[in-house]
Amino acid sequence: NINFMNIHRIKRTTRISSSFPQLILRITLLSLAHKLHLAVAVTAVICGAFFQLMIPGLLGKAVDQSVKVFESSQAGVEELYWTALLLFLVSAIRGLFAFTHTFVGEAIGQNIGYLLRIKYFEQLQKLSFSYHDRVHTGDLITLGILDVEGVRMFVNTGLLRIFFLLTLLGGGLYLMLRTDVILTLISLSFVPVIAWRGTITSLGLRRNWLHIQEKLSQLTKIMDENLNGIRVVRAFCSQDYELKKYDYSSLEALSLFDKQIKLKVSNDSLMSFVFLSSMGLVLWFGTERVYLSELSLGTLTSFLAFMSILQQPVRQIGMLINSFSKAVSCGERLFTILDHKEFVDENQEGSKVDGLGILEFKKVSFSFPGENQPKILEDINLRLEPGTTLGIIGPQGSGKSTIAQLIPRFYDPTLGKICLNGVDLKDYQLTNLRESVSLVQQDTFLFTSTVKHNVLYGEPWAAEDEVIAAASRAQLHEHIERMPKAYHTLIGERGLALSGGQRQRLNISRSLILNPKILIFDDSTSAIDAATEQKIRISLKECVQDRITIIISHRLASLMHANQIIYLKDGKISEKGTHEELIQLGGHYSRIYHLQTTIK
């Protein structure tokens, strides 16, 4: 199962060795953040169980009083009425305490869930690109929903249930033993079987539920990929294939749900049979003792009522164990991600970028984390002064995009360092550094919003004329003006209402409005026609004079005007110079130039 492997890969990333008690303690400490509410819930649980234990005794008393009324012709009716009223009040108070502990316990759980969701989402924002490169988005979404639920439910289904079970079982056992030891042993004969069977079944249900979670996660990934690639699916007429793939996974999930139902129903039937058998034995022996006047009818009724009350908490022993198991398994996966340290150091105490100086790569090498990983970049040395435009070209996988992503510190170099104004990039505040560097990537992500909001994403308070100026430089203003609502037009999910070239130009506009000190185009004009690209390049001439510009492209026309061009091969700079110098060199760059300019 792909998802099962991914989940376990997530667990291995930090190799957490937390034991069962440590995880339970950590989850419990989350609830202790709400000490007052927890104290109210625990008090309500204990008081509710105490009042519930009063009900069997009152029922037995009412039965004895009824017998007395029957035998003495209406004598003692008033006492029976008072007992009935007291029984009603006790039941009402018990219900009030049950409502209180359930409501407050759920409130604590929901607050814990809110806190975990915020922390989880915040952690995902911090985790490095290397981490996200290895873990599937669908798995992270599933963990952030199902596992948060598994942890937050522990307050009501685990922590508070312990107090309820201890009070009810302990108090009930004491009251029954004080009345009649033999009948107590017969009454509780169902407890070992139900407790054992409930525990085994609950653990089995838990294991099966983990498999169900995996299947649901797989279904989420299939649907997510299908919807994101819906145009590809339609273009290749693969609807039937996608439907069969989804149907196959759905049937696997359905079979697991069927197994879940069978386990639950068979267990409930067996436990009901064992309980009713024990109740039959109590009736058999109890009736005989009532007949011999060794036991009152009211006392027998109390025992039967105690059995009915104790049946629920005994059955809940298995549910309690299941709750602990679920909380631990969900908590381990969730805390693995929350405790993960694989993110770029933000260096809050670092300096801020003060003006634009020289950008230098000093013997920079890079490889992804892990054993036996190949080097993506090796011994890169570059020096770029303000106003310089650098062009980068090379075959796929040569490390072009990696250079672009090292500058805003999406990754850190494995060896060497990158300096700006003579200061290592690691010594700058990360947020401030990224505000100074704008990376326009080939894969454009646009939000489901208006054109204006997408342009303003990085600078929400920019003025209207700044938005228009950025769109104009990207040669998009005229097209926007022709839209139904101009800049207030919704562009659909991921900007699908726009063409590929329009999306790239909108992405350029979003970067230009930031007025960055370093502007990087990572093959960001690949979907734009040559004429429009030339217009964009001309309009950018004025605004790039006082900044560093880096252009990565497979199309030489996009970068041949650059002050310096490098050709990357296998992560190394194999050629460096101006366009004219590289043509005269007669190397890889020259061959590409002749291939792209020769008309057959």
Structure description:
The structure is a single chain. The protein is an alpha/beta fold and 600 residues long. The chain has 21 helices and 10 strands. Helix content is 64%, strand content 9%. The strands form 2 sheets. It has a 6-stranded mixed sheet, sandwiched between helices. A 4-stranded antiparallel sheet has the order 2-1-4-5, with helices on one face. The two termini are 51 Å apart.
Q: What is the secondary structure topology, with strand pairs?
A:
Elements: H1 2-12, H2 20-31, H3 35-72, H4 77-126, H5 129-134, H6 137-152, H7 154-179, H8 181-187, H9 190-228, H10 230-235, H11 239-291, H12 297-338, E1 359-366, E2 377-384, E3 389-393, H13 400-406, E4 415-420, E5 423-424, H14 430-436, E6 437-441, H15 451-455, H16 464-473, H17 477-481, H18 500-512, E7 518-522, H19 530-540, E8 548-552, E9 564-569, E10 572-577, H20 579-585, H21 588-597
Parallel strand pairs: 3-8, 3-9, 6-7, 7-8
Antiparallel strand pairs: 1-2, 1-4, 4-5, 9-10
